[in-house]
Amino acid sequence: MLSAAQHAQRASREIYLTKYELGLVNTADDKNRTGLIGEEYTPLTTTPGYLIAKRTATNPDFAAYLVRLLKEQGLSQGDSVLITMTGSLAGLNLNLLCALEEMGISSMRVASLGASSYGANQLEMTWIDMEDILVREGLLARRSDVVTLGGTGDVGGGLSDSTLTVLRRKCARLGYPLLDAGNRRAQYEVRQELLGDPKSYALLINVGGNHLMLGTGPEGRELPGGFISPQSNAWERDVSQSTGGLVFDFLFAGVPVLNLLHVEELAEQAGIPVDPSPLPRLGTSPVYFQEER
Predict the structure, then answer these.
(1) 58-67, 74-83, 238-247, 251-260: segment of lowest average pLDDT
(2) Which residues pair with 259 in a beta bridge?
(3) pTM above threshold 0.90
């Protein structure tokens, strides 16, 4: 757990230093100088976001907590998980990847570029820019396997044509495969084909509120944070009025889901403080001392 948190701390520091050199840091909002906080509104902003939640998600203790959670679920080397991320919660993205890499768990990684307020919403420093920096500096083992535009329909809905042009060019320049089917229905079908049989994964880990992952109806947003068992009554979907959502496809297939979305709820579960300044010294928060459930 401590090793994962230290890993995340080093990676966050590298992002901060790079953003500082580029003049992209707003220390009033990113008061802990994590590099993982963007601006309130930019051309890449898809929806409003909550600054306190975004700052809370940057705490490296979340990497430690995720190690605990995954171990409690029996995951270990040899297991393969599916990760779907957005740019909205860069802190949780980073903490999750560091936890998985410290545990040696293999993963299929899909990242969407859209980001809500205070996420990785700066066009000069999107989530894949952060990944690229960390891989080049040896702080992440590898980058995401495929990228989508995010936004409405996961095809860049709500973003301007000029912003979409920048994103497509960025993917090409950095060498990221871009999944861009043109409309929501086609994008859903292409994602399904790309991901394959849900049962080939031990777990789906969803970070953020991607349209294709949670669907367009309220049931996706109402899913609790944390682990969701396929047998749990914490989720339901009226198939006759379905608004999609690959998370539900996985649950119907019997695959558990780790939903990393409601940050303050997750922090309360973990014993991690909400929006502290400064961040606690690693190894001292309650997350390291809770008894295993």
Answers:
(1) 238-247
(2) 206, 226
(3) yes
Instruction: Match 């205070």 to its residue by tokens.
Output: 118
pLDDT at 167 over 90: yes
What secondary structure letter does DSSP report for 198? G
Quick: pLDDT tens for 198-215.
999 999 999 999 989 998
What integer pLDDT is reported at residue 219 of this predicted model?
81
Coil vs helix vs strand at 178: strand
Contact 257, 225 (CB under 8 A): no
Which among 159, 87, 156 has a CA at the least distance from the CA of 121?
87
**Band (60; pLDDT cuts 50, 70, 90):** very high
Q: Say if residue 104 is exposed, middle or buried (CB neighbours under 10 Å; 0-12, 13-18, 19+).
A: exposed
Supply 2's token pair. 């401590």
Encoding tokens for residue 125? 């420093």
Distance of CA 143 to the CA centre of its chain: 13
Q: Cβ–Cβ contacts within 10 Å for residue 194, how many? A: 13
CA 233 – CA 207 distance, rounded (Å): 21
What tens digit of pLDDT does each residue of 1-31 get? 999 999 999 999 999 999 999 999 999 999 9
Number of H helices, E strands in the chain: 11, 7
Radius of gyration of the chain (CA): 18
Q: Does an H or E element contain 12, and which? A: helix 2-21
Task: Give all strands of the β-sheet with 146-148 in edge-to-edge order.
Answer: 178-179, 146-148, 106-112, 80-85, 203-207, 257-260, 226-228
How many Cβ atoms from other residues are within 10 Å of residue 103's Cβ? Answer: 17
Task: Report the run of H or E that residue 66 belongs to, with start and end.
Answer: helix 61-72
